[in-house]
Specification:
mainly beta, 23-stranded mixed beta sheet, 1 helix, disordered C terminus, disordered N terminus
């Protein structure tokens, strides 16, 4: 797999880094090698894990069971690592398509202290990953152990790396956590996968790590959809998707946080919550045409989309870096809330860059059209000294006009905008 680096680019008056990008895996085959730590799991066998020791077991007493491309975790607690990721040390890995069935309460942590590779991950799948089951799972990639060589070659910590499609059909709560950043030139992401489908009844969560010091050139993502080449498409039809980032210590150095980066986000049900913690530059959702692709879409037809972006210098609830005439930004149903909070006042609820199309909103058969110079979109509605705010929802008996802004630091259904949160 050929690795490609994307250099530091300038957005408006301010620089941010796009992380090294890897190509999609070709049409993946079912996994033939599945590892937990350095133990290769044999098809048809049950395993018990006690004090991080993996032993063969029975169907009456097991924590791990693998058979023909399906891996079941049941009340597993494991901390370890193996040298089986494409570019990283990882805990759980598969070299092809795999279905993960989650039962009970499970925790997987990468405790590797080695260096010499690009980074570390909690789980690596070279192919498609389908998550099922009613259980809960936390996968933690662990903190970075060394600095990257420069701002374009970062040492990374990813909760999940999946080169194909991630499908979440579970009924429980699964959280992929990128580790904290202990060094300069490092990056963290909860999930790196080009295509994500959320259609279960449970919650899929992606959490980027925090900067543990005042380190230069740190970045984090909740979901980094454009980490791999090709179109990045995220679709939510049911359940809940959460993408959050940790802090970057941005008062003295550059630090960027992006809740969700993709080419296309389509919501037709369920709930999507996005939040960035305090950083130099915060983007709730970053719609980015990777590798010149013209696929640029953000649409909400049902369900809800809630965004909080925070930045010391710069923040955008939604940021689009495209001037494609085919770009689509539409809200035809559901509830949309975007809040942007920047101490330096450079803040916009929705920033469509130089897109020539209009931002289209339909509520109760009324079409709202906002051109690119409209302050509601490009400057937001100021509700306090630093906040810009945009809310669009079904009328609840109100008229079809813009709702009155909420003068509060704590709103959006549990997303807390308190200072530094």
């Amino acid at each position: 797999m050929k690795r490609k680096l994307i250099s530091w680019i300038t957005i408006l008056t301010f620089a941010m880094t796009i992380f090294p990008v890897l190509p999609h895996a070709a049409e993946a085959e079912p996994a033939t090698e599945v590892y937990l730590g350095d133990t290769q799991l044999e098809s048809g066998k049950y395993y018990a894990v006690i004090d991080n020791t993996i032993t063969e077991s029975t169907s009456e007493n097991y924590n791990v069971y693998y058979v023909d491309g399906t891996l079941t975790l049941q009340d597993l607690t494991y901390s370890g690592s193996g040298n089986h990721g494409q570019y990283s040390y990882t805990v759980l890995s598969a070299n092809g398509d795999i279905t993960l069935v989650v039962e009970g309460d499970n925790t997987i942590t990468n405790n590797d202290g080695n260096s010499g590779r690009y980074g570390r991950s909690g789980m690596y799948v070279e192919g498609n990953l389908t998550i099922q089951g009613a259980g809960d799972l936390i996968v933690n990639a662990g903190d970075t152990q060394e600095a990257g060589s420069d701002s374009t070659t970062r040492y990374f910590s990813h909760g999940l790396d999946a080169t194909g499609t991630l499908t979440f059909s579970g009924a429980g709560h699964v959280n992929f956590i990128g580790g904290n950043m202990n060094n300069e030139n490092t990056a963290s992401a909860g999930i790196c996968a080009p295509v994500i489908n959320v259609n279960g009844t449970g919650t899929l969560e992606a959490t980027g790590g925090s900067d543990n010091g005042d380190n230069a050139n740190t970045e984090n993502w909740g979901i980094f959809g454009t980490y791999y080449d090709g179109d990045s498409i995220i679709t939510v039809t049911n359940g809940k998707l959460i993408a959050t980032t940790g802090k970057t210590y941005s008062q003295t150095v550059e630090g960027t946080s992006i809740g969700l980066q993709t080419d296309s986000l389509v919501i037709n049900g369920g709930q999507v919550d996005i939040k960035t913690a305090q950083c130099a530059s915060g983007y709730g959702i970053y719609i980015h045409a990777s590798d010149g692709n013209e696929l640029n879409e953000l649409s909400l037809s049902n369900g809800s989309l809630n965004i909080v972006a925070q930045g010391t210098n710069y923040s955008r609830g939604i940021k689009s870096l495209t001037n494609s005439a085919d770009a689509l930004f539409s809200i035809t149903g559901g509830t949309f809330v975007a809040v942007s909070n920047a101490m330096a006042q450079d803040t916009m609820a929705v920033d469509l860059y130089e897109n020539e199309d209009e931002f289209k909103v339909t509520t109760e058969n009324r079409m709202w059209r906002y051109g690119k110079d409209d302050p509601y979109i490009y400057s937001g509605t100021v509700t306090s000294e630093r906040h810009t705010y945009l809310e669009i929802r079904d009328s609840d008996g109100q008229s079809g006009e813009m709702p009155t802004p909420v003068e509060s630091d704590t709103f959006i259904g549990g997303l807390n905008l308190e200072e530094g949160a």
